[in-house]
Amino acid sequence: MTRLEDELRSALRRIDPSEGFADGVLARLRSQPAPSRRARLRAIFMAPRLRWVWLTAAACALLVAVVVRHREVQRERMQGELYKEQVIKALRLTSTKLNAVRQKVQTLDREPPDS
Amino acid sequence: MRVANVLGVKEIGWAVALALCLAPLGSGQDAKLKLDHLEQLSSKAAEVVDVTLDGPMLQMASKFMAEDNDPEAAATRELIKSLKGVYVKSFEFDKPGQYSAADVEAIRAQLKAPGWARIVGVVSKRESETDEVYLMNAGDEKNPQGLAIIAAEPTELTVVNIVGPIDLDKLSALSGHMGIPHVEVEKGAKQPKAAGKHEEKH
Questions:
Q1: Paired strand residues for B132
Q2: Going by fewer Cβ within 10 Å, which terminus of chain A is more open, N or C?
């Protein structure tokens, strides 16, 4: 057996803890304040394994919001164009009718009173 | 004796508040006509034009006209920006007798309300046609707050109702713009001149 082996065996030999070590550890744990609910939740949700899940979910939510807003803008634009067409149609009709009335009045003006 | 001594300041305060609340109702003399009863004619008509645009819709239309960067659109925008509503119902029928006199009379009855004044009425018995133009002056003859047109022919009925300050000069300025035909508006010619026997003057 070599000297190195002896040294290793000596270094890695089992040593029993001193008396009262376990009680000391437990007492120290009890003396520390319990983590808050928020801290516990944060520890659960920000676990490295879950971090990617949350990032993906946030990206998806953002994408959905962008798509919804885009559709909303498109719908608003279509409505606006429709209203614009309706306004022009209404003004065109109003104008046509006013012209027709004006022409009738002018025709009547030119007619002799007893005709 | 001072009024305040009789009524008390508190009562006067309430009266002023009530008057302020009711003022819009009185001065508003709403130029909007009820045209719902005409909707039943849609099923009989060969062609229907039904435009119902209230304030927010007109604002939206105005906003989209602003995006056009077109001077013609700008003129139309200028006209509609202060309007509160544009309502048009026009029906073209294949044969006469599809609408009743009561349909038209229901509109005329509303135009007998205070504020409305018929500026032109042309009745052609020969052609069985009636054209009437009304303006709501609401105390200010130079700035009409509403326009109504009834054009009744044997196979066509058109009712136009524009609510809000309508500038006839601006309407005239739209002539030829965006497909809107020419309208000649004579300033101060709201009272028609003497005319033939078929013309009613108001």
A1: B121, B150
A2: N
Q: Are A101 and B131 within 8 A, CB to CB?
A: yes
Q: Quick one: which of B106, B15, B93, B90 has its CA closest to B50?
A: B90
Residue B124: which H helix or E strand, with range?
strand B116-124
Interatomic CA distance for residues A87 and A75, integer angstroms:
18
Band (B80; pLDDT cuts 50, 70, 90): confident
Mutate to test the interface with A, among B88, B174, B185, B197 (most CBs of A within 10 A): B88
**Contact between chains at A113 and B196 (C-beta distance less than 8 A):** yes
Q: Which strand (E) or helix (H) includes residue A73?
A: helix A48-110
* Model pLDDT for residues B128-163, shown as the tens digit of each residue: 889 999 999 866 667 789 999 999 999 999 999 999
Q: B89 vs chain A: nearest CA distance in angstroms?
A: 9
Give me the amino acid identity at B139: G
Query: What is the model's pLDDT at position B86?
Result: 95
Burial B112-123 (b: 16+ CB within 10 A, else e): eeebbbbbbbbb
How much is the mean pLDDT over chain B?
Answer: 78
Cα dihedral sign for A101, A105, A108, A110? negative
For residue B164, is pLDDT > 50? yes
Q: Is the pLDDT of residue B49 over 50?
A: yes
- The contact set of B with A (CB < 8 A) is 49, 51, 53, 57-58, 60-61, 63-65, 76, 79-80, 86, 88, 90, 120, 122, 124, 131, 133, 147, 149, 151, 158, 160, 162, 171, 174-175, 178-184, 192-193, 195-199
Report the alpha-carbon distance of residue A62 to residue A60 in Å, rounded. Answer: 5
User: Strand locations in A14-65, DSSP E?
Assistant: none
